[in-house]
Design brief:
alpha/beta, 9-stranded mixed β-sheet, Alkaline Phosphatase, subunit A, two-stranded antiparallel ribbon
Length: about 500
């Protein structure tokens, strides 16, 4: 027969056990942590949740937006100009360039690897003469606000492990995402909206796109309240936010109060932190019933502002609509917003699909940066743009001067950053003449995440969570840390 005392002991969490053992030593430690945080935290900023010793140092950025181009944008068609390739059209990629590197199964069986120079025109822009494709005319207007990193690399070569890797620090599922780490460590500036919000807008390019799983914005081993909240473009912006038909707000409030009392009893008995999470999430949902409708209502935005984001801004579910909502969330205290824009996986028909993808995001990205800049928020808001890897310089499928496809390429790709803590008007790193290998200033995706954490006042080595006997970190055991050259 089951021993009830043993069963009760098994359900006691470490937190509950420590709470029952007294608090003399714990109180002293807490006082130390509190005084340490007071030395670096902004006393004028209210904060809900977060760890008492964070930020570790004065942050340059208080909030962040990650514009994730899911699928792997083609760096040599957008940012990494390689004019020498034009003279090598349809010639084989030299073996000493490839160096026996791993290929995907989609091109590993090809008899040849013919080089495919970009069909798009490039020009130099900004004070540093950054090369940009004709597909990004609005990026050209803001290039002096951007830090373009052309020397990113990763070990992942397929989409799901690639996106999982850059979002959570590990290619296998189960780890906490970047936004969840920020929610856990820094908390939120408002208690009316979540600290971490995700949007997955529509796209115009290739219709067959890789699936996005909610574990990409999940909390993994962290308490579930730190998971990203998905904002939908149809129906209720957040699922189950509206009262059911026939249920009045007063009845909902009474039911919520009764449920809270029951959960409080359970929390006192077992000390399970997930019970407290449930209580907090119910209360958050109650407050969001007012805050979310106001957030998504664009009627008070000026005509000039809406026009700046482009014609799609008033189409629910578009990237432009997501971008302006991201700005509105920054204004309302949300800590981290991540927008996943799919369709960048151009294995073929680059001339048809890539321009559509760029048209989706180019003007809206410019408008977002300009809005943040005009309102004085850019200095305290970090914006990141990029995908999970790059594309090959050799062609997948049929090659012509006017059209071609590109396979996945983890050895080099381009991202850009702007805003709080990042040097503007900078082009960092370099690749070879084939945009195949990095020849100068390589940046691993762990270093990118460490740099993001640093801008937000977090030492990547000190933000950890004990799980399965290990001190888990977003950057794992990687000790290379942030890229100091990119920091203000």
């Amino acid at each position: 027969m089951t021993d009830p005392i043993h069963e009760y002991a098994l359900q006691l969490t470490r937190r509950s056990l420590l709470g029952r053992m007294g608090s003399g030593l714990g109180a002293a430690a807490l006082a130390t942590l509190t005084s340490a945080s007071a030395a670096v935290a902004d006393p004028t900023e209210q904060r809900f949740g977060g760890l008492p010793d964070l930020p570790h140092f004065a942050p340059k950025a208080k909030r962040a937006i990650y514009l994730f181009m899911a699928g792997g944008p083609s760096q040599q068609d957008l940012f990494d100009y390689k004019p020498a390739l034009d003279q090598m059209f349809d010639k084989d990629l030299p073996e000493d360039v490839r160096q026996g590197q791993r290929l995907t199964t989609m091109t590993s069986g090809q008899a040849r690897f013919p080089l495919a120079p970009t069909k798009f025109k490039f020009a130099q822009h900004g004070s540093n003469g950054a090369w940009l494709s004709e597909l990004l005319p609005y990026h050209a207007r803001m290039v002096d606000d951007l830090c373009i990193v052309k020397s990113m690399y990763t070990e992942a070569i397929n989409h799901d492990p690639g996106i999982t890797y850059i979002c959570t620090g590990h290619q296998l599922p189960g780890r906490a995402s970047l936004g969840s780490w920020l929610s856990y460590g820094l908390g939120n500036v408002t208690d009316n909206l979540p600290s971490f919000v995700v949007m997955t807008p529509k796209w115009s390019g290739r219709k067959q796109a890789q699936a996005l799983y909610n574990r990409l914005w999940g909390s993994g081993f962290l308490p579930s309240k730190h998971s990203g909240v998905a904002l939908r473009s149809q129906g209720d912006p957040v699922l189950y936010l509206s009262n059911p038909p026939g249920v009045k707000a007063e009845a909902r409030r009474r039911a919520l109060d009764a449920l809270t009392r029951l959960n409080e009893q359970t929390a006192e008995q077992y000390g399970d932190p997930e019970t407290r999470t449930r209580i907090a999430q119910y209360e958050m949902a109650w407050r969001m019933q007012t805050a979310v409708p106001e957030l998504v209502d664009l009627s008070k935005e000026s005509r000039a502002t809406l026009d700046k984001y482009g014609p799609d801004v008033e189409k629910p579910g578009s990237f432009a609509a997501s971008a302006i909502l991201a700005r509105r969330m920054m204004e309302r205290g949300v800590r981290f917003v991540q927008i996943f824009h799919r369709g960048w996986d151009q294995h073929g028909n680059i001339s048809g699909d890539l321009p559509k993808q760029c048209q989706d995001v180019d003007q809206a990205c410019y408008a977002l940066i300009d809005d943040l800049k005009q309102s004085g928020m850019l200095d305290e808001t970090l914006v990141i743009w990029g995908g999970e890897f790059g594309r090959t310089s050799y062609c997948q499928g049929q090659l012509t001067r006017e059209n071609y496809g590109r396979d996945h390429h983890p050895r080099c790709f381009t991202i850009w950053m702007a805003g709080g803590g990042i040097k503007p008007g900078m082009v960092y790193g370099e690749t070879d003449d084939f945009s195949y290998n990095i020849v100068e200033k390589p940046v691993h995706i762990h270093q990118l995440n460490a740099t993001i954490l640093h801008c937000l006042g977090i030492d990547y080595r000190r933000l950890s969570y004990k799980f399965q006997g290990l001190d888990m970190r977003l950057t794992g055991i990687d000790q290379r840390g942030p890229v100091r050259d990119l920091l203000v």
